[in-house]
Amino acid sequence: MVLAIETWELTKRFNRVTVVDGLNLAVPEGSVFGLVGPNGAGKTTTIKMLLGLLQPTRGSAWVLGHEAKDAVARHRIGYVPDTQKMYPWFRVEEIFFLCSGFYQNWDWGRVKHLQSKFNLPVERRIRNLSQGTTTLVALTIALSIRPRLLILDEPTTGLDPIKRRQFFQLVLEEVAGEGTTVFLSTHHLGDLERLADQIALLDKGRLVFCQDMDDLKRSFRRIQTVFPGGLPAELSRLPGVLKVERAEHVCSLIVNRDADRILARVREFNPAFVEVQDLSLDEIFYYAVGGEHRV
């Protein structure tokens, strides 16, 4: 397996505060990799280290076969941050001309295609654009370098639902048509659920899990039960039971592994009712960080 991104014990401290703590990731080429976590989890700091914009305190990051700090592969990395910083007095077309001089693989044909697709007002100045339109300008720049790696940090901020759907459809086309690796950090977990091959959860700088999306969805389950005499205490203590929730006569076991084994044990106690439910990615996020944060 060829990796587009690999980190080993990647750590970043600011003074005495550890923002990223011993992060180990392996992102295969041609995949869509989702990075999620509550605000302040260390996602943007991780991305900045991958881009070589921040140097790690400890550990290392390799991107497209080169150490991130060397910036050798930077001309093959497209980047769309959550907040766009462009010269506000430049026109859109001037921004494109400026960026074309920085990248070896700049593709004017692609610029024209995306400019038309997004209906970008090329003669308007950046300062007069909406936040959503500025984001689309940034995406056009990122894709016009024919990137091998596309890094997106909360990229759809300011986009309406139609533009957001268009944005992610374009990302999927990029993966399918160009074999581009996409590293995506977003709070829109529904989008990730449809897009991502793998997903990693950061909380307080530490990796909670990193799994294939299908394996993750199979691991987390809600087992709803009704016991006339109440939930047997032994069931709440089973390994793999993350949380127990009660609503009137219904008890729900939230499990994060061995769902089939736990279900078989529940049935040994002859419940009046039992049902297994899938969890959404939002719910998995909520339970995995102990219900302490909201997306």
TrEMBL record:
Residue ranges of domain ABC transporter in the record: 5-229
Presence of keyword Signal: no
Family annotation (Pfam families): ABC_tran
Xref: InterPro entries: AAA+_ATPase, ABC_transporter-like_ATP-bd, ABC_transporter_ATP-binding, P-loop_NTPase
Keyword field: ATP-binding, Nucleotide-binding, Transport
Alphabetized GO MF terms: ATP binding; ATP hydrolysis activity
Keyword Chaperone part of the UniProt annotation: no
Superkingdom as given in the UniProt entry: Bacteria
PANTHER family: ABC TRANSPORTER ATP-BINDING PROTEIN (PTHR42711), ABC TRANSPORTER ATP-BINDING PROTEIN NATA (PTHR42711:SF5)
Similarity-based family: Belongs to the ABC transporter superfamily.
The protein's name: ABC transporter related protein
Species this protein is from: Syntrophothermus lipocalidus (strain DSM 12680 / TGB-C1)
